[in-house]
Specification:
Elements lengths: L10 H28 L2 E7 L2 E8 L3 E9 L15 H26 L1
Antiparallel strand pairs: 1-2, 2-3
């Protein structure tokens, strides 16, 4: 007796999953694009002997425009927090080592 594969797929759940997935994706994408519009953008370029800094929103409205003569710049003080990747890696390794030591102590106590 010859048996055939039973290929009765249940299509409505698959179609519903794809439909809701595409709606969810497009909704998230539109939210991201909306947030990008609200974040101020910056432009920096050199025009003649001036450094020009422009901050604008909605690609139209200028929030801040600064022109600085390049020859007048003597010192730049940057007080921003700087990312130190080596410190972050060391902190992660210490946490991982602490976790391993804890697990070893637990295993010793169990046996």
């Amino acid at each position: 007796m010859i048996t055939y594969l039973n290929l009765n797929f249940n299509f409505p759940p698959i179609i519903l999953t794809l439909a809701f997935g595409s709606l969810f994706y497009s909704g998230n994408k539109s939210n991201q694009n909306g947030y990008y519009i609200l974040v101020p953008r910056e432009e920096r370029y050199i025009e003649e002997d001036n450094l020009v800094y422009i901050e604008f929103i909605f690609n139209k409205f200028i929030l801040k425009k600064i022109k600085i003569l390049l020859l007048d710049i003597q010192d730049i003080i940057d007080s921003a927090i700087k990312f130190q990747p080596q410190m972050e890696i060391n902190k992660t390794l210490k946490l991982y080592n602490n976790f391993l030591n804890l697990m070893q102590n637990i295993n010793k106590n169990e046996s």
